[in-house]
Amino acid sequence: MRFSPDEDARAILLPAFDTLDIMDVMAPFLEKGGCSVLIGETRAEYVARRMSAERLARETPDSFRAAVARLKTVTPGLIVAVDQELGGIQRLQGLVPPLPSLDEAHALGDAALAERCRATAAAAHALGVSMFLAPIADVLDGQNAWLRGRTMGSYPQAVARLVSAFVNGVQSAGITAVTKHFPGFNALDGDPALVDVSLHTPRDRLLHNALPFTAAIEAGTRAIMTGPAPVAALDRQNAASTAPAVMTMLRNDFGFKGLIVSDDLDAPATMRGRSLLETAIASVGAGADLLLVGGGPHLDALCDGIADAARSGRLAPDRLAEAAARVRQNAAGG
């Protein structure tokens, strides 16, 4: 089946919302070719690393399931993503059995840990969720306000073991694991969601700390998310999510064949003074398949701009079509 650039432009976007009341915005997006949605958290919940008391009191498994079901009346094969991190943010807090604590995870054997992750994922799948933006594979061995309270350790081998068990567990329940944030951000001087900041870790240290990504790929992770800031050892100008060198490393050096997901393209360290449209075009042009963006009324104009770029040649039409096909394959369970 052939798709138009307008449909492909919508297929590659993963719009994020911090509420379940999104039908008015999402329905036209889905009707024109959208495939995905991120049901996320507020900035305050993100910073706190937990859901608010108000949300916990208001949301129930039934209300969450009903909101997803409404969206799926438009697009039955919709990718429904959430942040469900081992040791970090759990968007489904109070709605599904919790993932083990970090201390519990390190104490459990591989099979037992995978089973705990599978149980959480199975309950999420019953709510209509199909993708976890997790596990976090970054090895944090320096200061990093962005990832503090979200990572799984400071030793590559220990993190790799947890990453592998998580991927095996959640994907056995039908949930796509999105291992993040390639190539790994061990230390940052600021939060890339707030300021323009770069990673200055030498290449040999990057590769040393990248063991968890190798473990995730070996475990069959269906998706990998690139990071939101430039990695100076690979590309000083472009954030990982817009850098061809990072995508090439992931594809060629690490041998990853699955879905590449960008981090939030709205981040200052990713945009680096460009518009959101320019950043999106750069990201998909560099090799990303599914682009994480804030949801809202601007989606239509953003999609039109991406489609126009493909028609004019600023974005290779075949690259856009390839990205959209990979997203649709994931949505179909492939």
UniProtKB/TrEMBL annotation:
InterPro entries in the record: GH (IPR017853), Glyco_hydro_3_N (IPR001764), Glyco_hydro_3_N_sf (IPR036962), NagZ_Beta-hexosaminidase (IPR050226)
Keywords of the record: Glycosidase, Hydrolase
Entry annotated with the keyword Cytoplasm: no
Highest rank taxon of the organism: Bacteria
Reactions catalysed, as given in the entry: Hydrolysis of terminal non-reducing N-acetyl-D-hexosamine residues in N-acetyl-beta-D-hexosaminides
Plastid as UniProt keyword: no
Top EC group: hydrolase
Protein EC: 3.2.1.52
Domain Glycoside hydrolase family 3 N-terminal: 61-328
Similarity remark: Belongs to the glycosyl hydrolase 3 family.
Protein name: beta-N-acetylhexosaminidase
Native source species: Shinella yambaruensis
